[in-house]
Amino acid sequence: MNRIRILENLHIPLWLIKDLCWALVFKPLGVIMIFPTVGLSFYLSWKTRNSPKEWLPNLSVTCWILANSSWMLEEFFSWPLKIVACFLFVMGIILISVWLFKYFPHIWVQQSENIENRD
Asked: Is residue 19 pLDDT above 90, yes or no?
């Protein structure tokens, strides 16, 4: 497993802890967890920037986490961030849609061929 995949897997518990703090309305840790979660997401996006088939999903996840964090901050502190969250969600949807239409079909065929060649 390469380093990017390891970091992507590490990213999952950070995100889950942040969202659990949100669900439990544990504001201090929820706000603190925004920083490593968003930071790692930016790092993954930066490291994959030269490969659009890797970069677009990572950038989409970054938009999703930023939107999710904005929404959480709005609920925690009544800050008017819902429009920011909606914009970021839409940006994430656009980015992953580009990936789905442009790169996913090729990746799917390539993976299917690899599986068939193993059998």
From this structure: yes
C-alpha–C-alpha distance, residues 44 and 33, integer Å: 17
Q: Is residue 88 a contact partner of residue 67, using CB atoms and an 8 Å limit?
A: yes
How many structural domains compose the chain? 1
Closest CA to 76 of 42, 29, 8, 44: 29
Q: Which domain holds residue 16?
A: 3-118
Compute the mean pLDDT over every residue in the chain, rounded to the nearest whole number: 93
Show the DSSP H helices in the chain as ranges.
Answer: 3-23, 27-47, 52-77, 82-102, 104-118
Asked if residue 91 lies in contact with residue 63, where contact means CB atoms within 8 angstroms, the answer is: yes
Residue pair 43/7 in contact by the 8 Å Cβ criterion: yes
Is the pLDDT at 1 greater than 70? The verdict is no
Cβ–Cβ under 8 Å, residues 18 and 72: yes
Among the ranges given (6-10, 57-61, 87-91, 94-98), the one the predictor scored with the smallest mean pLDDT: 6-10
Cα separation, 91 vs 77, in Å, equals 24
